[in-house]
Amino acid sequence: MSVKTNIPPATKTFDPARRSFLGSAVAAGIALAPGVFLYGIGTAKQVQARSLDEAASSSVRWGMLIDVNRCDSGCDECVTACNTENGLQGHGRPETDAQWIRKIELRDPASGRQNSLPVMCMHCEDAPCVDVCPTGASFKRPDGIVLVDKHTCIGCRYCISACPYKARSFVHEALHDQKTHAPRGKGTVESCTMCVHRIDDDRQPACVEACNSKGGGAMLFGDLNDPDSEISKRVATYATQQIRADLGLNPGVRYRGL
């Protein structure tokens, strides 16, 4: 696993010619090849929630810091909280069931050291899922949160192929009893929204809240652009890692202790 810290902001800009090409590829049925922090005792500095008619601001970059030393392999409070919050119900087929956050186990073959860590959408600054989407359904808000517009998603699944973190799911089943704050739809793609409805209401994501109240306190959420926020102070103080930092995507989710 590559390690990179203090990654500068991405300089790549949107290329309309590439989007036009991808749109043509969809129409022609061409198969495209995929492109392929730290928490201690304390709470995140809160940022005043924006009103419903106010656009997300680029002055904020929401992110998470996860200390794997505090993440127990037997704990799945974050997964349970995510499923409950967003109405993710299994259908008895794990290979197709939606999973916005999952726990994975890592083992260093040389030392035998093992780590357990949650993995979800990394909300990349230079998100490949956004880059390959032919309809613009995958998009990134100015505050760094990557989302999917279900009204324009055509279910082509290019974004699933492009994501190096395997963080996106395709909805195969008909859905019932959906949450109004987390719209879903059969035949569309979905992934972790970082509980954007909670963030806009000045609350913590459900996984972070559950981890700190019922789990090991491994997850910290906050504004990476605010030097006075708890998350920024810890990133500046301790060594942190980004999964697949070599890709230069600058994920908004970082880890300590990998």
Nutshell version of this structure?
The chain has one domain (18-24, 37-256): 2-Layer Sandwich (Alpha-Beta Plaits), CATH 3.30.70. It is built from 7 helices and 9 strands, in the order H-E-H-E-E-H-E-E-H-E-E-H-H-E-H-E.
What does this 3D model show about the protein?
The protein is of the alpha+beta class. It has a single domain, classed as Alpha-Beta Plaits (2-Layer Sandwich), CATH 3.30.70.20. The chain is built from seven helices and nine strands. The strands form four sheets. Strands 8-1-9 form a three-stranded mixed sheet. Helix 2 packs antiparallel against helix 6.
Question: How are the SSEs placed, and which strands pair?
Answer:
Elements: H1 16-28, E1 62-67, H2 77-86, E2 101-107, E3 114-120, H3 128-132, E4 138-140, E5 146-148, H4 158-162, E6 169-170, E7 189-190, H5 196-199, H6 206-213, E8 219-223, H7 230-237, E9 253-256
Which regions are unreliable across 5 or more consecutive residues at pLDDT < 50? 1-49
Mean pLDDT: 82
Number of helices: 7
Give the domain tally.
1
First-last Cα distance: 9 Å
Helix content: 10-25%
CATH architecture: 2-Layer Sandwich
* CATH fold annotation: Alpha-Beta Plaits
Provide the CATH top-level class. Answer: Alpha Beta
> Tell me about the biggest sheet?
3 strands, mixed
- Describe the strand arrangement of the main beta sheet, using strand numbers: 8-1-9
Q: Strand portion, in percent?
A: 15-25%
Strand tally, please? 9
- Using the CA coordinates, give the radius of gyration: 18 Å
The best one-word shape is globular
Order of helices and strands: HEHEEHEEHEEHHEHE
Structural class: alpha+beta
